[in-house]
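Protocol step 4 of 6: record predicted structures for both targets in the notebook before any analysis. Target 1:
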Amino acid sequence: MYKKVNTKSKEELLQEIAEENFSRKTLSFYKYVKIADPKAMRDFLFDKFSELKCLGRIYVAHEGINAQLNVPEPNWQAFDKFIQSVKEFSGVPYKIAVEEKGKSSFLKLIVKVRPKIVADGLDDATFDPADTGEYADAEEVNKMIDRGVTVIDMRNMYEAAIGHFEGAKIMNVDTFREQLSKVHDMFRDKKDEEVLLYCTGGIRCEKASAWMKHNGFKNVKHIRGGIIDYAHRVKEQGLQNKFRGKNFVFDERLGEKVGDEIISDCQVCEKTKCDDYFHCKNESCHVLFICCVECKEKLKGYCGKICMICDKFPRKLNQFLVGPNKQKHKNQFKKHYKKLKIQNQLM
């Protein structure tokens, strides 16, 4: 039966995973498809995924599904058979993780009903999200980059900070919603030209390409399967890899290596080459920041001395003292991105 809240602590969940005697396979998939009763689908998926011991984060809406999860290797065939048996998801392609880290990319299973599978902030009855741009495979992507096509990164700036395609245009934004509200104006001089969009696994670009077409762009393409699929295809086909650095992912790994180059620096010391993200150990802060091994050990996993000291105080006092600094810390780390190698690519 569907359970809304998992009451186990993070430490308990980690201990359970540590005791597992099998490996897990991380993947993601999405599909824009009409789901008549998202709540019923949510319950159905939660029960089956729980039975298969899957962990992850799945969003269901009337417009479709957006799933990021891992599956125990021994249950992979049963998982695939189940997904393909659901008529709404039959034929959906999987994006298998480029790199696994640790025992599990997720700690628990969450299946939620959302108004949309990707928050876009759009409210236009005339917009058809199914009218997407054309796909570009890995070989075509490389050719487009070589001939100087405008390549637009449809991810948040903190994602692009640790990895992006050669010469990609990176928008100075924090959310996909903000990107969609600005992208057609920022690149309006490219409406009659060929443009290429990309994101992590393709879901954001499906909608972004349709939105740009809706706003008059004549030749919009997007990378089939996003960065994840591109990484697999260049390796399989022996193509040149034009993605530099890491691909940011929204799970416990916080990144998977695609290119060999480290393009970012530690946001604490601002000296050491580094592309590892961490959340501040102080839960009242929890800010996301890039940190080298030395600084992480020095600060014991905190983003700064204030959070390290305040985390020793009672919870309410900790929240009171750290709260006002939370946005300050976010702004501090955001300013750092402009010092990285993306500075000449920021829009």
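Target 2:
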Amino acid sequence: MATKEQIAKEQRIASGVKEILEFRGFKITTINENDEFMDVYAEKIGEDDEKKTALARFPKNPQVGVKTIRVLGKLQAEEEIDEALLIAEAPLTHYAKKESVKLGIEIISSSNPLFNIFDHEVVPHHNKLTNKEIRSFLINYQIAKHQIPKILETDPAVKAIQAKPGDVLRIVRNPIMGEQGAYYRVVIKSTSRLQLTDVSKKKKKTTTKKTATKKVTKKTETKAKAKPAEKKVAEKKTATKKTETKAKAKPAKKKVAEKKTATKKTEAKAKAKPAEKKAAAKKK
């Protein structure tokens, strides 16, 4: 037997699930409940006059695992449901979250402020504009879509109406807070701000790289300019070395030439002596 607290909690969650679906334009059709689950079926007519269905499941067991996610994904595929929601009391495991992303199932915590968020008097009402309303709004104010002030997709009100990045919201001001009229916001990804910071860091890195490359190019240019002068100096040094080697080699060549001439003279004298002896003998 369920306790009074358990029954009150289930009733609160059931009313929260209904409100979430109604915020998104769905109308509740049937509610099926047993000892394990409470399923809320809803449907709506989209902008293209197409019928869309939704299923929000609340498991009675607080511990939600991969098996629960897969069972709901199988049911979504069999009944051709467009949007599937799972309301969980306890935090999901890493593998259960991964499986929900894989199957396209939206996970909503029962402690999330999505429940009864617009019932609070301070929270203004949020409406998602259609494509026609967005076009007329941009033409009326003569602006582009990126010029509209931003709101993150992680905002509880954005989650409640299931707005996605690129959607434009009309937020009605709260007269209780002394505000009147409405203002508009475009939904962006929660990582957009991080990307902006990353871009700024990348720009800094690129500038530092550019300065480093400039320094390197300057060094190479100075080296390239210095190379001809170095070549000239080296050529002069080689020329002087050659002249020195030639100058050193000339005396040695002279000595060799003198020795050759001396040997030739001695050989000529040695050959001439017998002839002279013969001539002298004939004279006698």
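Step 5 preliminary note on target 2. Residues 192-283 form the longest helix (92 residues). The first strand starts at residue 27 and ends at 33.
Proceed to step 6 after PI sign-off.
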